[in-house]
UniProtKB/TrEMBL annotation:
GO cellular component, one term: nucleus
SUPFAM superfamilies according to UniProt: HD-domain/PDEase-like (SSF109604)
Gene3D superfamilies in UniProt: 3.30.70.2760, Hypothetical protein af1432 (1.10.3210.10)
GO biological processes: dGTP catabolic process
Species this chain originates from: Triticum turgidum subsp. durum (Durum wheat)
Classification via InterPro entries: dGTPase-like, HD/PDEase_dom, HD_assoc_2, HD_domain
Domain HD-associated: 151-275
Lineage: Eukaryota, Viridiplantae, Streptophyta, Embryophyta, Tracheophyta
Protein name: HD domain-containing protein
Domain of life according to the entry: Eukaryota
CDD domains tied to this protein: HDc
Domain HD: 10-76
Amino acid sequence: MNNLQKYQGNELGIDRIDVQTVKLAGLLHDIGHGPFSHLFEHEFLPRVHPGSTWSHEHMSALLLDSIVDKHSIDIEPDYLKVIKEMIVASSDVSTAEGVKEKRFLYDIVANGRNGIDVDKFDYIDRDCRACGIGSNFQHWRLLEDLSIHKLFTTRADLHRTVYTHAKVKAVELMLVDALVEANEYLGISLHADDPEDFWKLDDTIVKSIETAPNDELKKAKEIIQRIRRRELYKFCNQYSVPKDKLDHFKNITAQDIVCSQITSKVLLKEEDVAVSNVKIDLTRGKDNPLESIKFFKDFGCEEKFPITDERVSHLLPVCNQDRIVRVYAKKPELVEAVSEAFENLQLRMYGEKTQVHDTPTKKKRRFN
């Protein structure tokens, strides 16, 4: 923001208040995350409150109001309103639609219009470094169309190799099960509606469950202890939804797997199966994010234009979204039965099955 004000401040009308507003929005936009971040929002809450529309952006705004009121912070109401609008703009684009002046300021922290924002610059660079993953994306080269596409593809690669790794999802599924088991006794989800209580929720909820003496938390505690011992849910198989089926795809449930069981020595129950429905895209679902971005020929040009895929590269993907269904058995002895039921489901839905986790059998070594 300092550079933007320095080099284009007069042209764009950026003043000191604008700089402070965007900086505060950037600093505060993620304070509304619950325990284990997106897991709480997208996995846990929908399990205990089906149809939940809760979002961490709106909780961030509520927490900001609570902080200002509780500590009697002297801040102009209009100033505070703009900060909150910038925070929620990524999840609710309509929030900024009515803004007539300096609309671009609402796209800097978290951009709901085309996905180019400093939040992505931050976590992509940080996570690539932390995980030892090479990244071709360099945010200082963002003015080039190919570099913009690298932003989206690097993000997708992180989702594919880190955030949705089979082992990562196994741990997440177990954490969600533990939180659901503990919810009735601890009232975890009740804190999600009140900022005065919500701030007390963080990742230490796991330690609270693990050390609680209460019998009511026995099941949740056992799941946490299994994670500690690395006794994770067993990955059975996965398949990628064919691209011609994406428009009509509905998330697969444990019930779908159990109902696909034909013959087996073991009769499966829903609580024996865990399913992870993974969606990886380039921030715009099935659409190409470059279609929502306008380019200029050079710095002095005022005419903007869209760019075609062919201008960027002939190697760009023809499909901008992956939907992957992963199935896990909660007990090792059920892997075969769950795998068989999952294969039956694939045959019924798509007329074919995949077996991605099989390792080719090695030839036996001969000893003379």
